[in-house]
Design goal:
Layout: H1 2-25, E1 28-39, E2 42-51, E3 54-59, E4 67-72, E5 77-80, E6 82-84, H2 90-93, H3 102-105, E7 109-114, H4 124-134, E8 139-142, E9 144-145, H5 146-154, H6 163-178, E10 183-187, H7 198-210, E11 214-218, H8 229-243, E12 247-249, H9 263-275, E13 280-284, E14 290-293, H10 294-298, H11 301-304, H12 308-316, H13 321-335, E15 341-344, H14 356-363, H15 367-377, E16 382-385, H16 390-397, E17 402-404, H17 414-429, H18 435-440, H19 444-450, E18 466-469, E19 490-495, E20 498-502, E21 505-506
Parallel strand pairs: 1-4, 6-7, 7-8, 9-10, 10-11, 11-12, 12-13, 13-17
Antiparallel strand pairs: 1-2, 2-3, 5-18, 14-16, 15-16, 18-19, 19-20, 20-21
Helix pairs in contact: 5-6, 6-7, 7-8, 8-9, 13-15, 14-15
The protein binds zinc ion.
Length: 526
Amino acid sequence: MRNTKSREIALIIFALVSYTALKAQGDLDILITGAGLFIEKEFKYVDVGIKGDKIVYVGDPQEGLKAERSIDGSGYLLSPGFIDPHTHLTYDLSRKDRKANLPYLMQGVTTIVTGNDGTSPVLIGDKLDEWERNGIGTNAALFIGHGSVRKEILSLDDVQPTAGELEEMRSLVVRAMEEGAYGISTGLFYSPGSYSGTEEVIELSKIAAAYGGIYDTHLRDESSYTIGLIRSIDEVIEIAEKASIPVHISHIKALGKDVWGKSAEVIEIIEDAQKKGLHVTANQYPYPASRTNLISAVIPRWAENGGYGSLIKRFDDNSITDSLQAGIIENIRRRGGPQTLIFSSAKDTSLNGRSLKDIAEDWQMNPAQAVIRSLRQDEDIRVVSYNMTEEDLNRFMRQDWVMTGSDGTPGHPRKYGSFSRKMRKYYGEDKIVDLPFLLNSQTAVVAETLGIENRGKIQEGYFADLILFKPEEVKDHATFDEPSRLSSGMFLVMVNGKVVIKNGEFTGELAGKALRKKSEINIKKI
Ligand SMILES: [Zn+2]
């Protein structure tokens, strides 16, 4: 009884404070009325007032609230705009025909982070200035890519930096952090990140840590190619500890047969680290398949040395046929077997949509021979590779430290569909996550993890990045055959107080901001 009473009083005071503050600021630009919204796990109906680029009122309907424009939100769910911590959009946002970032806006994503997997512009400030000058559709933040910094100083060589070279790399990271990077990203699976030892990564991460940034990584090995998944997780935790930095594992997964089922062990290691006080989080795209070219998926690295011409010569060299085929067979096994690799070829469309198993049987040869025959015809064969299990995917998704990250790249539906698919399938159909959990994993949790200030929540003083939709209407249309189909179901998307999607259509407004992390250096951390 007492509690209810004091809560009522608190609510009245809250309403009064909001109302008075509002009057002082004059009328609203936009008032959204009657929308449903989750505050923590509790569902409420509220009015939300917007002035300029900010939310200035959240609460019960108030008489006397005047707005230039009123939007009836009844029957819709209101959420902060989604934040994607892992994209590959540096190029898109700089192109005239793509800077509106529609694949993301149509999914309700209002802020993206890019410069992931170790690749970013080295001059962060220049890129942010350019986006600001030319306009972008979503807000955008950048990581400084370790691979790009390494390439600048050491080219693409498999070498270790001297003390002087490491110092040069450190100063590039200092500059990037001064110019507003949100942290440092690595792609330790890829060249040139793969050439670096853990110590080098720790030294550079200390700089990002000193500026309050995070460490974002594509693990050295998500499978069993080199040090293995578990030792790669151990490496991230070592970096968290030694560089005193929050770490974020990108597109967490158990890739390939040798590590299927390892999600439980990975989660255990991460939660042990969290109990010790380390900040370890992750993001995930909600698809059990990746897409890549057939050559990188199954041809041993030694055989492609020198490019496609050299590969064909090796195909013709009888003295290495056995070892070449053995290597291909091992990589097919590692990814889940010939039935999990689905072909697409622009040159020979009769292969499209068929598995390697099917093609090999048809040609009456073993799968390695079929790979060689198909690559002789077409260098650019692509494969959709079903290399993850739904069980691992679901288990990762249920963790409250795992958020949604599209890892959007051309040719995979995740760029156009990650957020919509998670809502349609993993919430709506399979019920792996509930709605408040899902929304939180795409808003507040991401903003907090990345240190993005005043976004990710519907709160007075926060930026008005808002979306209105009916969850059951949200649909992804992108598929592996047609990966560039826009999602649908967002009734309204607002970026910095501007309506950019109205009734599911783009209004043409470029309302995004280039985000710069504001931080002061903490010398003690270096
Ligand atoms: Zn990656």
